[in-house]
Amino acid sequence: MSMKWTLASVAAMAMAGLGVSLGAQQGKGFLPYEDRGAIQRGEVIYAENCASCHGANLEGEPDWRIPDEDGLMKAPPHDASGHTWHHPDMQLFMITKYGTAKIVGNGYESRMPGFEDVLSDADIVEVLAYIKSTWPKRVVKMHNERNG
Questions:
Q1: How would you write the chain as a 3-class SS string?
Q2: Closest by CA position to 31, among listed 141, 130, 137, 142
Q3: How far is CA 88 from CA 8, 39, 128, in A?
Q4: What's the rounded Cα separation, in Å, for the pair 120 and 142?
Q5: Is the CB of residue 148 less than 8 Å from the CB of residue 90?
Q6: Which residues contact 138 (CB under 8 A, 6 or more apart)?
Q7: What is the pLDDT along the chain (148 residues), one digit of tens a residue?
């Protein structure tokens, strides 16, 4: 079994352990982006763990599409101007939990660490819910379509 499938299986089991049914919100994914409590908790967790790289206002680093002096990509924005919404919920969850390099594989290098030893699965889901809650309705709709 490949590393990606192993990680996907672990993540799916973690989500099931949280009581999140991946098919529960057909076409919307599993992020509780309409749950005020989850959004508020996610905003605090984001400020404490993510804003130092991705910006207090989800704006990312300047010139985020241009590699830095080490040839690594800079932290992208998580607002509607970025590409976060291009990825389905499970992929966002896995990148946050395990880190970009581990998910992409093939020797890809990234400064994006995995947060599996820092944040609980519920924390990760709430951070992602907070991020999604800030997007305009048209971007939320496009993201929901990516969740099938």
A1: CCHHHHHHHHHHHHHHHCCCCCCCCCCCCCCCCCCHHHHHHHHHHHHHHCHHHHCCCCCCCCCCCCCCCCCCCCCCCCCCCCCHHHCCHHHHHHHHHHCHHHHHCCCCCCCCCCCCCCCCHHHHHHHHHHHHHCCCHHHHHHHHHHCC
A2: 130
A3: 13, 18, 11
A4: 27
A5: no
A6: none
A7: 455 544 444 455 445 445 444 444 556 899 999 999 999 999 999 999 999 999 999 999 999 999 999 999 999 999 999 999 999 999 999 999 999 999 888 888 889 999 999 999 999 999 999 999 999 999 999 999 998 7
In terms of Cβ atoms closer than 10 Å to its own Cβ (0-12, 13-18, 19+), residue 57 is exposed
How many CB atoms are located within 10 Å of the residue 19 CB?
A: 8
* Tokens linked to 37: 């409590």
Q: How far is CA 6 from CA 77, 102, 113, in A?
A: 28, 11, 19
The whole-angstrom separation of Cα 17 and Cα 12 is 9
Report pTM.
Answer: 0.83
Burial class (CB in 10 A: 0-12, 13-18, 19+), 137: exposed
